Amino acid sequence: MTTWDLDRASAAAVDRAVDVLAGRRIAVLTGAGVSTDSGIPDYRGKGSRTRTPITMQQFVSDASARRRYWVGSHLGWRAFAASEPNAGHTALAGLEDAGAVTGVVTQNVDGLHLRAGSRRVVELHGTMRRALCLHCGQVFDRRDLAARIETDNPWIAIPENVALGPDGDVLPSSSDGFVVPACSVCGGVLKPDVVFFGEFVPVERFGEAEQLVRASGALLVAGSSLAVNSGMRLVERARRRRLPIVIVNRGATRGDAAATVRIDAGTSDVLPLLASALGSGG
Predict the structure, then answer these.
(1) Separation between Cα atoms, residue 167 and residue 185, nearest integer Å
(2) Active site (annotated) includes residue 113
(3) What range defines the domain where residue 153 resides?
(4) How many domains does the chain have?
(5) Exactly one of 89, 113, 125, 135 is catalytic; which is it?
(6) With helix as H, strand as E and coil as C, how does 32-86 read?
(7) 103-147 pLDDT, tens digit each
(8) Number of neighbouring beta carbons within 10 Å of residue 136
(9) pLDDT one-digit tens code per residue, 42-54
């Protein structure tokens, strides 16, 4: 794609973004919009279904809610894990290789930045690659856990087409009879290593994200509406330091007032253009 393939306003905005970002070390913040072209829907985009995600309190206190969650999480994870990085992920990895990008802070839990080749990735909301025991802290690889789930629940069928959610879950039709995986060390409750609604991003992890922004000369926001406070806090950190802020997102975001350049277009279209223009100057 070239800027000729974008509408006139978006093409002009890409050119302004290149001028703003050129010669600067760029911190990147990504959201669900980066992964939609990999087949993973976002929470708020056009056509997104209404969801009521489980809260941490429900997960811990309600065994039936926890069972429903694990059925949906397992079914969705199979489809989630098969997703592949798209052109946007690859472009950001290339910009890091070129020395233009200092690292990626992502609100996504899909691991696609790492699979695309990005090396410094701060996964603000955790990852679906792991599960952990809430009692003893033992960590489990999700692939091993999936094998155990299917051994304990031989009746479970992986549908060919699932209504996949942004966090790799689906809405199960039934959870009757499902055996919930328990910690093989202490028998405790297992939870995917992601930040649930009602939880806070770990302080150390947010500190790492802040440090990445502090070490950079600009902030590029890609595919996030910035509705989640953790992302908006990083934009505010950049604004206070008077860093240029470029936002690439379809639709309005909470950070638009702070943006130096705003590009209303898809990340898979725009990020490769930015990589092509900026990659030789890192």
Answers:
(1) 26
(2) no
(3) 46-82+132-191
(4) 2
(5) 125
(6) HHHCHHHCCCCCCCCCCCCCCCCEHHHHHHCHHHHHHHHHHHHHHHHHHHCCCCC
(7) 999 999 999 999 999 999 999 999 999 999 999 999 999 999 999
(8) 11
(9) 654 444 444 567 8
